[in-house]
Design brief:
The complex is a heterodimer of chains A (363) and B (318).
Chain A (H helix, E strand, L loop, with lengths): L5 H13 L7 E7 L5 H11 L2 E7 L2 H10 L6 E2 L3 H9 L19 H7 L10 E13 H8 L8 H4 L1 H7 L4 E3 L3 H11 L9 H14 L5 E2 L4 H7 L4 E5 H14 L5 E4 L6 E7 L8 H12 L1 H11 L14 H4 L8 H5 L2 E2 L5 H15 L3
Parallel strand pairs in A: 1-2, 1-3, 5-6, 5-7, 9-10
Antiparallel strand pairs in A: 4-7, 4-8, 4-9
Helix pairs in contact in A: 9-10, 10-17, 11-12
Chain B lengths: L2 H22 L3 H29 L14 E4 L4 E4 L4 H8 L1 H34 L2 H12 L6 H12 L4 H8 L13 H25 L4 H8 L4 H12 L1 H16 L3 H6 L7 H11 L3 H29 L3
Antiparallel strand pairs in B: 1-2
The chains are: A alpha/beta (363), B mainly alpha (318).
Chain lengths: 363, 318
């Protein structure tokens, strides 16, 4: 979901412009690249007569910069939980009118309760998809270097003696300070959302100690590198690793990729549908949201983007390889160890960014 | 209209213009010529600069837009409040991190500019000394890469330099190396990227300077017994100095603030001010601080260069 695939977006926009609708009803959707089956958009247009202007981005930061400048013109956007949490405070989003969402009851209350830690009572969001950060690895390369050492551990990334063995085949880590520092804190047995200076120092110390074994910090490059065998392990987004897995299979070069949620526990993220307060077409936006919440449509997102959806009505429509994949729908035992990342204070963000720059540049 | 009548018309026009000038004290032709670029600079450089400067004096806030306003007023109470926050500028000097980032950017830009000059000079020289017909072809070859997106060309370098990329495959196949070299995500790749991208900006001004050169000077030097290498360093290079300066500035200034090339080709440890700016803007969401970094970069790097250029211009009587 984090990588921009130009081909698809071009295809999609060509497709959509062909379905121009006479009534002039439109909805402007701004979503992650490669995150929605073009078919769903097309059928929505046919059914409702609302034209969808579909635009894509590849980072939360990009979305936030546009929204914070004001009058973005978008009706539906898909920020990640801890971004939405902060943006709600800035008064960016309108409240969701559940009266207009007849399919709202399809949503899975268990997961909704977790999301409420970002947005009390889920007033401003409708869950789109959720997933985890975990370890993506090249089976053969890891086996050659680690033998029968367990691969479901963050030791691969954070333990110097283990990481040193993998340095030659390439370790990649997300370039996302809050998420990686959160996971590092959790690995150290510290509350992952701690804003204490001493805790941040401990996490920086941990990562700095292994940093020389890393090939790079980047939030999207690893997808193709993993599929090509340019790196052998990544601490990255599950959906991207699974996409790398299927690309490696398609390429047929014998590269075998797997994804595992580390046993120490990891971060769970929620991408949430939201309607900006200044959205020009709020009614059409609600119609779009309601359409997504329909079981078969929500399931198609899960099948297409290889992420989980919190929709009970979608479950029967899931492909078997998606619903039974513990990397997408983790077992109850693993789910218990997942923690969400909360928004931080501006002061902590500044400290964090600085600590992260120091880690990256090896200072 | 024949050429003659054309010339006569120009004469007539210029004499009228001269009279105009006499009467009004304003040279309208000159004014028209200068006003267009001035207006352009004003709208597309000076106004945005003022906006950025304004933001740099505010404080970040959780709001739309994410910074405080400098002015607040109340017409009924009849007051205007101006609040300038200089804290961002002070912070910049308190924290050595920014200084290091500036210095590291300058270092990368200086080295890249040097290599661009080293490669660009022979190319420009060759083009300037070739036959006029070949010259046009060669010049269009220099400009040709601009027809493809800059981003795509940088991506192409990623394909060339990566571990199982074309360069490594080639070197492995001919047996020069045994293990693939790590080239991508290093400073080396950043230098390659910058030199490659900005080479045309070096070649074109150099070519212009070299092409204008009076060839009889070289003949005279030869007649007086100077060896080609001596006349090259004593005549050709000094005469190309304006081109060298223009080319170096065209490469150096954008290279200092470069973001895309270090982000795509550089390693995580490539520290450049462009990245620091990105972090301030997107990670810290601190638009005022980001603006401050940008303003200081402009003042520290570009202003001295502009002053030097200006004083040179005066010396040359331009």
């Amino acid at each position: 979901m984090k990588i921009k695939h130009v081909g698809y977006s071009v295809m999609l926009s060509a497709l959509l412009s062909a379905v121009a609708v006479a009534e002039g009803k439109v909805v402007n959707v701004y979503n992650w690249a490669e995150y929605l089956d073009p078919q769903v958009v097309e059928e929505f247009q046919k059914e409702t007569g609302i034209k969808v202007n579909y635009d894509v981005y590849d980072s939360n930061e990009m979305l936030e910069a546009k929204l914070m400048s004001g009058s973005s013109g978008y009706d539906v956007v898909v920020p990640t939980g801890f971004f939405l949490e902060r943006q709600v405070k800035a008064g960016i989003y309108a409240e969701i009118d559940r009266q207009q969402l007849s399919n709202y009851g399809n949503l899975d209350q268990n997961i909704m309760n977790k999301i409420a830690s970002h947005d009390p009572d889920n007033k401003h969001n409708v869950p789109y998809a959720w997933g985890t950060i975990g370890l993506g690895y090249n089976k053969q390369m890891i086996e050659e270097r680690l033998g029968d050492l367990p691969v479901d551990s963050l030791d691969l990334i954070f333990k110097p003696e283990v990481a040193a063995k993998l340095a030659d085949c390439g370790i990649a880590v997300l370039d996302s300070p809050s998420e990686i520092v959160g996971i590092a804190l959790n690995y150290l047995g510290i509350a992952p959302n701690s804003e204490k200076k001493t805790d941040l120092k401990a996490a920086s110390h941990l990562i700095s100690g292994v940093r020389s074994n890393y090939k790079y910090f980047h939030s999207s490059k690893y997808l193709s590198d993993l599929a090509n065998g340019d790196i052998c392990v990544v601490l990255g987004y599950g959906s991207d690793v699974l996409m790398a897995q299927s690309r490696a299979q398609e390429a047929g070069q014998g590269v075998e990729i797997d994804y595992v949620i580390p046993k120490e526990g990891s971060l769970v993220w929620f991408d949430l549908l939201a309607i900006p307060a200044d959205a020009p077409h709020p009614q059409a936006a609600h119609q779009f949201l309601n359409y997504i919440l329909r079981g078969e449509n929500h399931a198609s997102i899960s099948n297409y983007a290889l992420t989980a959806v919190a929709n009970k009505a979608a479950m029967p429509y899931l492909l078997e390889e998606v619903s039974t994949n513990p990397g997408i729908y983790p077992t109850a035992e693993v789910t218990q160890k997942l923690f969400p990342m909360n928004a931080h204070s501006a002061k902590y963000d500044r400290l964090l960014t600085r600590a992260w720059s120091n880690i990256k540049t090896g200072r | 209209m024949s050429i003659q009548t054309g010339a006569a018309w120009v004469d007539f026009a210029s004499s009228r213009l001269a009279r105009y000038k006499l009467f009004n004290g304003v040279n309208w032709g000159r004014f028209a010529v200068i006003s267009v670029p001035t207006l352009w600079l004003g709208i597309f450089f000076f106004v945005p600069f003022l906006v950025v400067f304004k933001i740099s004096l505010s404080e970040s806030a959780i709001a739309i837009p994410p910074y405080t306003s400098l002015l607040d007023w109340d017409l009924e109470e009849a007051y205007i409040n101006i609040k300038l926050n200089l804290g961002n500028y002070l912070y910049l000097f308190e924290d050595t991190f920014y200084l290091e980032a500036y210095l590291s950017s300058v270092k990368i830009a200086v080295i890249s500019t040097f290599f661009t000059l080293l490669i660009g000079f022979p190319i420009a020289y060759l083009i300037a000394r070739s036959k006029p017909s070949t010259r046009t072809l060669l010049l269009s070859l220099v400009i040709l890469p601009f027809w493809t997106s800059f981003l795509l060309r940088v991506y192409a370098w990623m394909g060339l330099l990566k571990k199982n990329g074309i360069v490594n495959e080639f070197l492995l196949n001919i047996g020069i190396i045994e293990q693939p070299l790590t080239m991508l995500q290093t400073d080396f790749a950043v230098y390659i990227g910058i030199v490659y991208t900005y080479l045309p900006f070096m070649i074109l001004p150099l070519y212009t300077a070299l092409e204008k050169m009076d060839m009889t000077l070289l003949e005279a030097a030869e007649d007086l017994g100077a060896r080609p290498s001596i006349s090259f360093f004593l005549i050709t290079v000094p005469m190309a100095v304006p081109g060298i300066i223009a080319g170096c500035l065209l490469v150096f200034i954008p290279a200092v603030g470069e973001f895309v090339i270090p982000a795509l080709l550089g390693g995580s440890d490539t520290l450049m001010i462009g990245r620091v700016l990105w972090d301030e803007f997107f990670l810290n969401r601190d638009w005022p601080m980001a603006s401050t970094v940008a303003i200081v970069m402009l003042v520290v790097l570009v202003l001295p260069i502009m002053l030097i250029r200006n004083s040179q211009g005066k010396e040359e009587g331009v």
